[in-house]
Specification:
single chain, GMP Synthetase, Chain A, domain 3, 3-stranded antiparallel sheet, about 180 residues, alpha+beta, 2 domains, 3-stranded mixed sheet, elongated
Amino acid sequence: MKIRVLPTIITAVISAALLIGGWYTYRNFAAVKPLEQIVQSVPGVDTAKPVIGRDAVTMELTLNKDANIRNIYDQIAREGESVIGSRELRLNIQGEQSDSTLNDVWASVLFDVAQAMETRKYTEIPAAMKQIETQYKGVQAASEMDEVNVYITLKDGASTKYIVLPRTPDKLGVWPNA
């Protein structure tokens, strides 16, 4: 039995095109578009572009000045659960209206926040935010937390800086003296 080369190649190309085209169509209409519509309806979000990966869903967001980052994360996670599934949800905030003043403010308190995150003493973070407000006149600092992330918002007039810091849960392990 002799296999004819030209019909075999044409069949392989058509099959590959149908599979890739079907996958692309499914991904856009069953995953990306619904998630994009969900995020666009969240108050505080100007533009959103979901990037769906194997282990994570990254939302590239542009937020307005009055956005509440914790509420945005919660609403996306809750309403987009059918699309996100067991993947990790990450927020990548694009086009922040932060200026060098807010970057300097964040740099001045970064050590305190990093130490609080590392030692899991999360109550030190609001104290660091109060320190910012007393040290830098006109700067508003707010921090919120849920079971997944710590959210920090810095505002100075028209400038805003949003920071999302992931909390890492304790890992169950074996104690050496057990």
